[in-house]
């Protein structure tokens, strides 16, 4: 044996970094997904899997006029010959092309269970059957055997498949597409076939047509499930740029179920919405209280159509509940348009005009290639017919030559070698105009090999006179076809006429009316227009809970009553703020962190008087430890905001003035409203709207008040300032309220005289019984009657309420105007009470107003202002609210004019006195106090 060591085989080893290899492999994979799987081709609007399914069905003869075939057979052929992926992916793609709620123009005719709009899965492929729809066979696959499109080898190169189908209509727009590739995605909505073809006509007539002009023919998507598109802004963005968001909502009607009950009937839903899941979502929203007023929900859909019924409660408004369905469920959705498709093998974001232009250019190419193919075939057939015509014209010599020939090959050679007289066939030969095969000068014509073979295969029946005429007629028809084909190839106008005629034929046979309605005004209409306008009591607790209760829930009572239960509060929580405003009013919330948030009243949760409400942290993006300190109701008309100012007052006595328009645009994450003095421990007390001709009244907890002109405050341009001093506070004192009063020019003597006159007049009218008050006759001699009438007309009254339930009305004339920054004057005498108390509210009221007083125990009482005694600025007042030993009044709200008188013992909104007598002490009958009750 030889000691020679065997040599190792040489390998070509190239070092590659892992980064480069991963980058190259990933890019290869990404391009494979983009080009060969996920994105549709702009020409036929199909992805490879859909194209292969349709081609296999056409190839297998599963046409629209043939019997159905098992779906498993189709899937197997597709997977085995063209699509080397999972059978479930192929079957799901085929199923979608047979679902009328998925495709605007069905391409597959399915028989069996192909799923439902409720999201039910289709039956297994071994149970279902399918065949091509007629539109797919005649409009997508027609002319594929005429060399109109390119073919490429399949995955194992055992056969070939078309790279694109010769589509006769813009399938990408008509049926839309959706797919997720690597780093990109497409989502194209379906459109109406007739409208898309009209758009193609418009582009053919004017290739420079604008997108807006094109939208007159293609107004927007047309979903197979119908529905309503809100507005045209999203459509316009999508058609111009290729991207946009189209807001769609289902079609619903409000029907009268009983005499006083309504039902919402949903007959159409947005595209790609699962009906069963939508119904479940509605039920969950009803259980959670997000949607109110629903009594019953049921699905009455059948094979005749969709019908989802939402029965409403007796007192529910159909428009309001329908608006809630649109807002909180999938009855209204957004379709994100992203018109990304393969154009020339490259992914491209395309607008409406780009897609139409690409399709028209593709059809021009298809028609050109088809015409060239048909021209070649016509010439080949005409060539054979010319040979037969020559043979028939020279039938006797031809027969003699064939009889004399030893074999067919010799006969063929002799037929080709002889010059045959063209005779009457000469003009036909000239019309065919074959290169190099014209009639000679001697009037003879030589047969080609193909013609000689055709003559040898000629049957004897072709020699009859009738058959000879048929040959001539066919040859003449072929010549006309050749002329037509040449005209199409030589003239683009002629080619476009053919294109228009084919599009018109598709439109006439397959187009149907639009299903999706486009409402230009619905999206511009704010949803709150469907909200019933009503007065609401908005209640905010110290612990941060909010709710709104209809104002009609609370009955008017006389002062001194015990009130009724207003909220079920915890031991450590109490009602802190009350606002009375319309459901359409915007509310500004100001927090302890100096932030401002805006929200409409109708967005707040509705509750009963005893309900606690919903935590503000679930409605506003409050940080940990941040609380709402004050709330301001704004005018509904935002055009008034530029003319008004807003005042901020803090507990430390500072005040700031801004333009209200500074807070017109507040995002959902809020806006900085005021920079607070964190070291001083101050908080925002009140925010008020004001004008230049008004005064500011600041009241403190220890009974002080100061009044000065609004114009004493300059308008701040920033929102982060702490402001300037409004009142100089005493030890342990703080500002508890800020009010806006009408300015008036009145001298000291005149004010004193008028106050004496007003007190005397109230005594004469029986409103007050004070022996210290002079009579009208005693003071009238000091006054000018016209001037007193003018002062009386302009008089305002300030209501002051203490925490122990005492309060009074005082003429605003008693609060003289001073410069801001002073210590103020006395407002309410706190020294005569049985227990130490503080002032909790001071604001102007009108005689027709009503008040709502709230205690920290959760009790509320509503009373008219006219029953509260008018007293001097430094007096204590009378009992307004009889509260418990451990209770205190924490909030007082002015409700505005009462509107109508309510019976004290029995009203529509509350039980009678007899019915209420059995209630608990919390809901005890009201106690009337006719005589004023003086403080000690």
TrEMBL record:
Coiled-coil zones: 468-509
Region annotation Disordered: where it falls in the sequence: 892-936
InterPro entries, A to Z: GyrA, GyrA/parC_rep, Gyrase/topoIV_suA_C, Topo_IIA-like_dom_sf, Topo_IIA_A/C_ab, Topo_IIA_A_a_sf, Topo_IIA_dom_A, Type_II_DNA_Topoisomerases
Superkingdom of origin: Bacteria
Subcellular location: Cytoplasm
Signal peptide per UniProt: none
PROSITE patterns: TOPO_IIA
Motif (GyrA-box): 557-563
GO biological process assignments: DNA topological change; DNA-templated DNA replication
Broad class of enzyme this protein falls into: isomerase
Enzyme Commission number(s) of this protein: 5.6.2.2
HAMAP family: GyrA
Protein name (database record): DNA gyrase subunit A
Organism of this sequence: Limibacillus halophilus
Lineage: Bacteria, Pseudomonadati, Pseudomonadota, Alphaproteobacteria, Rhodospirillales
């Amino acid at each position: 044996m030889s000691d020679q060591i065997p040599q190792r085989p040489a390998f070509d080893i190239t070092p590659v970094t892992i980064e480069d290899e991963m980058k190259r492999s990933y890019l290869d994979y990404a391009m494979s997904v983009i080009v060969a799987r996920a994105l549709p081709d702009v020409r036929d609007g199909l992805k490879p899997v859909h194209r292969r399914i349709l081609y296999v069905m056409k190839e297998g003869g599963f046409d629209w006029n043939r019997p159905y075939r098992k779906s498993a057979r189709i899937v197997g052929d597709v997977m085995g010959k063209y699509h080397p992926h999972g059978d479930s992916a192929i079957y799901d793609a085929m199923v979608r092309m047979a679902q009328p709620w998925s495709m605007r123009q069905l391409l597959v005719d399915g028989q069996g269970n192909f799923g439902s709009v409720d999201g039910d899965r289709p039956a297994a492929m071994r149970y279902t059957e399918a065949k091509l729809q007629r539109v797919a066979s005649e409009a997508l696959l027609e002319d594929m055997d005429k060399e109109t499109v390119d073919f490429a080898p399949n995955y194992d190169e055992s056969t070939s498949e078309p790279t694109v189908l010769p589509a006769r209509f813009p399938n990408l727009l008509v049926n839309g597409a959706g797919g997720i590739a690597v780093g990109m995605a497409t989502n194209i909505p379906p459109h109406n076939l007739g409208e898309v073809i009209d758009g193609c006509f418009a582009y053919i007539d004017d290739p420079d047509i604008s997108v807006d002009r094109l939208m007159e023919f293609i107004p927007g998507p047309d979903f197979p499930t119908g529905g309503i598109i809100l507005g045209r802004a999203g459509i316009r963005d999508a058609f111009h740029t290729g991207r946009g968001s189209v807001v769609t909502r289902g079609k619903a009607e409000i029907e009268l179920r009983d005499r006083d009950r309504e039902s919402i009937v949903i007959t159409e839903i947005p595209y790609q919405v699962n009906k069963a899941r939508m119904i479940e979502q509605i039920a969950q929203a009803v259980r959670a209280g997000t949607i109110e007023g629903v009594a019953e929900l049921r699905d009455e859909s059948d094979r005749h159509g969709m019908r989802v019924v939402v029965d409403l409660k007796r007192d529910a408004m159909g428009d309001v509940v329908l608006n809630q369905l649109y807002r909180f469920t999938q009855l209204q959705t957004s379709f994100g348009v992203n018109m990304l498709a393969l154009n020339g093998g490259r992914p491209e974001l395309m607008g409406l005009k780009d897609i139409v232009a690409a399709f028209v250019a593709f059809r021009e190419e298809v028609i050109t290639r088809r015409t060239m193919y048909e021209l070649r075939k016509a010439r080949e057939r005409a060539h054979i017919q010319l040979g037969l015509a020559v043979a028939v014209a020279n039938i006797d010599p031809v027969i003699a030559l064939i009889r004399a020939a030893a074999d067919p090959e010799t006969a063929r050679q002799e037929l080709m070698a002889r010059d045959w007289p063209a005779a009457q066939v000469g003009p036909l030969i000239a019309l065919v105009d074959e290169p190099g095969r014209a009639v000679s000068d001697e009037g003879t014509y030589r047969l080609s090999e193909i013609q000689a073979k055709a003559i040898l295969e000629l049957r004897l029946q072709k020699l009859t006179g009738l058959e000879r005429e048929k040959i001539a007629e066919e040859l003449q028809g072929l010549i006309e076809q050749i002329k037509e084909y040449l005209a199409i190839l030589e003239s683009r106008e002629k080619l476009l006429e053919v294109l228009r005629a084919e599009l018109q034929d598709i439109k006439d046979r397959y187009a149907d009316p639009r299903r999706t309605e486009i409402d230009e005004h619905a999206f511009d209409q704010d949803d709150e227009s469907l909200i019933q306008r009503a007065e609401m009591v908005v209640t905010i607790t110290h612990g941060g809970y909010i709710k709104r209760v209809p104002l009609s829930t609370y009955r008017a009572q006389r002062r001194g009553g015990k009130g009724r239960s207003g909220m079920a509060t915890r031991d450590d929580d109490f009602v802190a703020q009350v606002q009375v405003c319309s459901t359409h009013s915007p509310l500004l919330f100001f927090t302890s962190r100096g932030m401002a948030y805006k929200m409409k009243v109708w967005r707040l949760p509705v509750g009963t008087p005893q309900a606690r409400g919903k935590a503000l942290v679930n409605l506003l993006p409050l940080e940990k430890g941040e609380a709402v300190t004050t709330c301001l109701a704004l005018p509904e008309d935002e055009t008034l905001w530029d003319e008004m100012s807003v005042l901020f007052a803090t507990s430390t006595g500072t005040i700031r003035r801004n333009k209200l328009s500074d807070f017109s645009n507040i995002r959902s994450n809020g806006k900085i409203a005021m920079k607070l003095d964190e070291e001083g421990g101050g908080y925002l007390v009140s925010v008020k709207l004001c004008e230049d001709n008004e005064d500011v009244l600041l009241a403190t907890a220890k009974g002080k008040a100061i009044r000065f002109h609004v114009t004493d405050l300059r308008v701040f341009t920033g929102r982060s300032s702490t402001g300037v001093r409004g009142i100089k506070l005493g030890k342990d004192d703080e500002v508890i309220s800020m009010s806006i009063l009408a300015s008036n020019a009145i001298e000291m003597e005149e004010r004193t005289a008028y106050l004496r006159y007003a007190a005397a007049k109230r005594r004469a009218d029986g409103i007050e019984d004070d022996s210290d008050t002079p009579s009208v006759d005693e003071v009238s001699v000091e006054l000018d009657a016209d001037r007193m009438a003018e002062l009386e007309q302009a008089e305002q009254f300030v209501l002051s309420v203490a925490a122990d339930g005492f309060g009074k009305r005082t003429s605003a004339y008693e609060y003289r105007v001073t410069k801001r920054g002073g210590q103020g004057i006395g407002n309410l005498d706190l020294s005569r009470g049985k227990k130490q108390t503080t002032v909790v509210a001071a604001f102007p009221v009108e005689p027709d107003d009503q008040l709502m007083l709230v205690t920290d125990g959760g009790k509320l009482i509503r009373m008219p202002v006219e029953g509260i005694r008018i007293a001097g600025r430094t007096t204590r007042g009378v009992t307004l609210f009889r509260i418990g030993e451990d209770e205190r009044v924490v909030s007082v709200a002015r409700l505005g004019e009462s509107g109508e008188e309510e019976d004290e013992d029995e009203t529509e909104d509350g039980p009678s006195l007899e019915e209420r007598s059995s209630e608990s002490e919390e809901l005890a009958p009201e106690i009337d106090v006719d005589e004023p009750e003086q403080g000690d």
